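re the bet — no i am not wrong, look at it urself. input seq straight from the record:
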Amino acid sequence: MSLDHDGNIVKHQTPTRDAFLGGRLVIAQPAKGFRAGLDSVLLGASVRRDAGALLDLGAGAGTAALVALSHAPALTATLADDDPEILALAAENIAANGFAGRAATLRVDIAGSAAPRRAAGLAANAYATVIANPPFFGAGQGTASPDIRRAAARHMPAAALDQWVRAAVSAATADGEIVFIIPATSLGAILAAFELRLGAIAILPVASRPGEPANRILIRGVKQSRAPLSLLATRPIHGPAGHGFAPEIEAVLRGEGRFDWKKP
């Protein structure tokens, strides 16, 4: 859906169909607005659990969850979002990629209170893994998009990030893992939210090139763990020069590799 100049009149758009994991996945997603890309693949490839139930909060068209499912045949997934049109695309992607028996969509307000989430069907203490790529600018940060769905996917009040973490922890099993991908500028806020509720926190910085500052962060925590925090080595997306991907990232993008949270 895209905004037609001024007013509240909107029009439907034909989705694009984009290949991921070297063509193993084909994802229908809006031609305009928020579109899955590198972050969604990195998030899906960061899931460590090979079995159990996976919850993708703010799943959008479902790319991250479907990447995780493609790596682990014993995983099942719930793709949660509050946008019915994007959830319709997610349902299409589940079926088109052969995951109809392993995944389903759920409409829920992630940043809302617990009772409406439960009423919508989001169970507590039920998911071995919870992943999220939350809206990455606080209110007033970045450039607001005129597309209302892209704006919602990119911007949220700063306090809502803590609510997303709270929702993730509530949904996770007693030893569940929770993984978020965020801009590096949001590390302080996400770390504070994780440290209140999780242990075994691991921070995996991602940079564009070797030697450059990290521009995004993958962060993982475990519910009811008391293990200490660890800071992993920064992973570069590209080599020192050119547009090619670093070998580890190339393997992830082709569906041949996953992130190892035990790797220093």
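see?? The CA atoms of residues 136 and 154 lie 5 Å apart. told u. also The longest helix spans residues 158-171. so pay up
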